[in-house]
Design a protein that fits this description.
By secondary structure, this protein is an alpha+beta fold. It has three domains: 188 residues, Heat Shock Protein 90, CATH 3.30.565.10; 107 residues, Ribosomal Protein S5, domain 2, CATH 3.30.230.10; 201 residues, MutL, C-terminal domain, dimerisation subdomain (formyl-coa transferase, domain 3, 2-Layer Sandwich), CATH 3.30.1540. It contains 19 helices and 24 strands.
Length: 600
Amino acid sequence: MQKIHIMDTLLSNKIAAGEVVERCSSVVKELTENAIDAGSTIIKVDLIEAGTKSIKVTDNGSGMEKEDALLSFERHATSKIIDEDDLYRIHTLGFRGEALASIASVSKVHLRTSVGTVGTDLVIHGGKTISTQNGDARKGTIIEIQDLFYNTPARLKHMKSLYTELASITDYMNKLALSYPEIQFVLTNNESILLNTDGSGNQLKTFSQIFGLSTTKKMVEIKGENEDYIVNGYISLPEVHRASRNHMILIVNGRVVRNSDLNRTINDAYHSYKPDNRYPIVVINIGVDPSLIDVNIHPTKMDIKFSKMDVLQNLLTQIIKDVLRPKTLIPEMEEWGTEDFYEQDSVSLEQPLVQEKKTEYEEITLNLDRLGEEPILYEKKNVSSSQTETKEEESFQKPTERLPELYPIGSVHGTYIVCQNENGMYLMDQHAAKERVNYEVCLRSLTNPKEQMVPLLIPFTFELTQDESIILRENMDFLRGMHFDIAEFGVHSIVVKGHPAWISKYREEEAIKRVIDLVIHREKNFDIGRFNDHVAATMACKMSIKANDLITIEEMENLINDLRKCENPFHCPHGRPTLVHFSQTDLEKLFKRSGFDTRI
């Protein structure tokens, strides 16, 4: 008896709908993208009960003839690609020809469309055509989707709450409006307007209509290009960040996309400007030849692959760093407290690479001569300030002008240095500031180490599992390049006879094991830059003065001068701000002196 048979068209469309139509926002996405591809300049989306009852999309695009309107609901029917070559140079948002057939199979559809002459009025329920008749001559298309998933109760039962569905639709419409600022988008729910852009073509103005004026003021324009990519858009200043990546908006050739690698690259470019577990707000437009990307890897067409990802990542990193580097990034009092800053004070390693040793100078046991430079430590009893200043001058380049001249006048709880100048008052976190100073010294030393290898009197032997042994053998040259004297020792063991100069005394075995574990865990993706940064941040925290440590005015002045010489004087290595500004106006507002004679 024959077991294999061809599925009914309606059944296959319902199965396809499970991939294309996941929720109400999926329907909105497909219909609005069709409206954009039709050349619309005004697109209105009207929802009833967050789209669960009705989704109506009205546009003023090119419209369709009767034959095309009927054919558009057939599976794999499209006007956007003809042959296989078109698949590699896609310029439209839609191209699969599956959306309308999938939507129609799980809903009730009412389509009215016209090219400017006699229109077409089409009704389809559950994929079956109910009626076809002539319609009005209004150019454009009006398509209404009612009772989504009415004939697939299992899918209907798993729909999210109305608020969740509405939030998802609003989020996508916001991103779409930023992708096409030249199009006017209107979104309503139960006749209440949620979005109404002006279609002026100004992306920053559209951003302001979505995110508000206060956030828009904190956005910075970026531009850059190379042989393969053109990048432009806006990124937020480091003081503006969010708890999720949802506000990192990537637009490739007008298409809103998701790409975790690019999100990670953008976030890494902000490293030490903000907490690593917080994310900036960005709207980045990427222009690229369609042949260098592949959007045909998921039915939603939001996932994308780049053939030259490393080139794009390097370009994005360079552009963002070049924009942030010259900025004066001191938070104002009015913004202070609006963000949840990173609470943990230091980066912790499972096995610390530096060991604290209690002396009268509270110095650590890291051999800093091996690093090539001395750290900047505050004198406690016998340290000569003149010697310290000499070493500091050797460690830094000329001061930057981004940090204003500050005059310390005291401290609060031995933690926050109070400074003033003609622009108002500043509060400086002495630990965060000192951490930044020491971090940059240590990072330069680790990045440009003296080519020294410290031999071990008694070599260390480490036993590994078979898979660990295989991975480490592949990376042996990498470890030798880091100045480890390392070799195989037996079947699944290695022996270390020497280590690089920056490894601290007394904990060499733990530190070496930590490096080996990192290399094994990350395999060939081990990043020496990230590793050096991790070590530098840890060392900087341990060697810095702590909260409740009282220091003199002279020591405060030295700290400010050291901070002025840093590449980024505004944040500690973990992204916390080093100082906050209170303007004269802010102070007057605090004490209700606004409008009064401040001399009284």
